[in-house]
Amino acid sequence: FFCFANSRAMPWPASFASPLIHLPQAPTTAAVRSRRRRTACRPQSSSSTPSQLAASDAFDHPPRGRAPAGPQPGVSPAGAGVEAGVGKTRTGGRIAFGFAMGFVVIAVIFSGPWAFAVGLAASAVLGQQEYYQMVKAKGHLPATRLGRLTTLLIILMSVVEPSLAEAAFATGGAFICLYLLFRRRPRQASIADVSTTFMGLFYAGYLPTFWVRLHGFDFAPDSATPGARLAARLMASGAFSLPAWVPRPTVHRGAVVVFWSLLANAFADIGAFVTGKAFGRTRLIAISPKKTVEGAVGGIICSTSISICAAYLMGWPLWQVTGFLYGITLGVVGLLGDLTESLFKRDAGVKDSGDLIPGHGGILDRTDSYVFIAPLAYYIVTL
Q1: Buried (b) or exposed (e) across 232-260, using 16+ Cβ within 10 A?
Q2: CB atoms within 10 A of CB 333
Q3: 79-124 residue pLDDT tens
Q4: How far apart are the first and last CA of the chain?
Q5: Angle at 279 between CA 278 and CA 283, to 5 degrees
Q6: 361 has which bridge partners?
């Protein structure tokens, strides 16, 4: 204001006075419409300066509170359609890959104890490596090789002699402490290095071995239950006949329990996702903003429904009650496992634990809930 009032009395530079003297006038509605008609008929010039483009954008901006007459600048209806098509393609690819993984897991479950142990060992070692990568991103240096070696030893003992699996865990832990005690490169081990090494061994290595123990706890043929009789009738009718080159499945009670437990947990994930998308309004916990209370309840209901059907087909006593309790346990504990992995990723500052599985992230992103339910499923079924 001082510069404007004294612009005639004092020789102020034009650069100081012009912003206050030449104030831009708000265009009228008729002027805006006329400007739009002229720009619509005239092609954009590639030689326009940034200031000219900015002035044109400011001039053509519609009045506040009124929607623009045409498409938004920078948003093309054709481009939006392409993006929607790409999104649908990615979703379809994820679903197809998920079904393919499911068939592979079913084949591994019914391929015998050693095939199941090898498949679970590969999953456990890869998941353990993803955990150690997240830990290294925080600046810690765990004993990754000894951790993976101990995991393989525990899985081997779980197949050969399950009672020795605990001894393998304790012995491997002692050697890990001994190694970290004398390690000097790249630096001396810290308490965080020891803690993260054992957490990776326990979380991604030790807990999954209970699936191997559950798979092999009872090799009696599953032939007297309602599910076995139904499967026998279906096979006799030729509805599920396998080609001659396909190995015959190894069906026993332990494998059947593992199958139904994993299926119930998978339906818990699907139910939580669908219910959360459709009805999710209340956030469940801050460490996982996309999870809702409604989705969690939907997942537990789906897990319980599958478990009740499984308890009837497996011939469990009081199948309505045992299946109900088993399903609720799997749903709640599986959700805790999912949230625990979300806590790890949030602290490490990563969205996914890895990128091994296209469209799904890493191994831990797919097996986080299965890890926590393994010991509970084993002790509920075997005790």
Answers
A1: eeeeeeeeeeeeeeeeeeeebbbbbbbbb
A2: 20
A3: 545 445 555 556 666 777 778 888 888 889 988 889 999 999 999 9
A4: 87
A5: 120
A6: 357
Whole-angstrom distance, CA of residue 74 vs CA of residue 80: 11
Q: How far is CA 166 from the centre of its chain?
A: 30
Q: Residue 292 forms beta bridges with which residues?
A: 283
Check whether 55 has a pLDDT greater than 70. Answer: no
Collect all residues with Cβ–Cβ distance below 8 Å to 235 and sequence separation of at least 6: 241
CA nearest neighbour of 365 among 20, 98, 10: 98
CA distances from 16 to 3, 4, 9, 187 (A): 8, 9, 14, 62
**% of the chain exceeding 70 in pLDDT:** 68
* Phi–psi pair at 95, nearest 5 degrees: -65, -45
Q: Are 354 and 365 in contact (CB under 8 A)?
A: yes
